[in-house]
Specification:
It contains 13 helices and 2 strands; from the N terminus they run ββααααααααααααα. With 260 residues, it is mainly alpha-helical. The chain folds into 3 domains: 86 residues, no CATH class; 77 residues, no CATH class; 56 residues, no CATH class. The chain has a two-stranded antiparallel sheet. β1 and β2 form a beta hairpin.
């Protein structure tokens, strides 16, 4: 995604091949060391503040590859005692940063735009994945027709699927047609299911199952023991289905209905 009010892209280091320098997101200039540049040219901005502002991970280098190589070479050429002194100083700075920001905050990269770019979960990548799935399906998909990972990403960014569609430029007419198709698909699926299992939700059958359960265990099943999550033999329908079958609102009324 483009970096607003600046240059380049969010969470991306732009490298100029001809010079080996990297671009400043704020002013667009190419420099060997962005940390020094932003401190002197942009109101003494720290490298941590710069990374946060442009969406980079906290450990992403802000020097060009050539400068980074020279730093490593200079370090290895120093006497052992000097290398140890520098290492101790860097460790001290790292621990100070952890105390200031907290260990999790100092090391955290999850949620940065650079991390999202890597995981394919920035807003534009999510939209691209959605368009790809929609093109493959040939129609604006309902929520159940898109992949689980894409659903999770959409809900992490938007309050609802329809809000995501509006943000991506789909019209209210297209959204309404999608909802209508989803309802028709649900009704058709429900009808087919009931036709293949005509007595699955029979009141008499469920009543017999509940009485059998009560006879075996001396109580009615909990709502958690009902439904598809139950591992009891002859699984019962879920709570809402049982309440609807007996036209009741709670378990006390169910006990009276069953004569317990």
């Amino acid at each position: 995604m483009e970096f607003t009010n600046g240059y380049g892209f969010q969470g991306v280091i732009m490298l100029k091949k001809s010079t080996g320098k990297i671009q400043c997101h704020i002013c667009g200039e190419f420099k060997k060391n962005i940390s020094k540049h932003v401190y002197h040219a942009h109101d003494k901005m720290t490298s941590t503040d710069y990374r946060d502002r442009v969406g980079l991970n906290k450990t992403t280098p802000l020097v060009c590859p050539g400068t980074s190589l020279k730093i490593r070479e200079n370090f290895t050429m120093k006497p052992k005692a000097e290398r140890e002194r520098i290492s101790q100083r860097l460790l001290k700075l790292m621990h100070e940063g952890r105390r200031k920001h907290g260990f999790r905050g100092f090391k955290k990269t999850r949620g940065t735009m650079q991390e999202k770019n890597t995981m394919g979960s920035c807003d534009l990548q999510i939209k691209h994945r959605f368009i790809t799935e929609m093109t493959k399906l040939g129609v604006l998909p309902t929520m159940t027709e898109i992949s689980a990972s894409l659903r999770s990403m959409i809900y992490s960014r938007f309050s609802s699927y329809d809000d995501a569609l509006r943000a991506w430029g789909f019209s209210e007419r297209e959204i309404s047609e999608k909802e209508m198709r989803g309802k028709q698909k649900y009704i058709a699926g429900r009808k087919k299911f009931l036709e293949t299992s005509p007595d699955l939700y029979s009141k008499d059958k469920v009543k017999k199952q509940l009485l059998s359960f009560n006879k075996e265990f001396g109580r009615l099943p909990t709502w958690g023991e009902c439904g598809l999550s139950s591992d009891r033999e002859g699984r019962l329908p879920g709570r809402q289905t049982i309440l609807r079958l007996f036209n009741i609102t709670n378990k006390d009324e169910l006990e009276r209905e069953l004569g317990l």
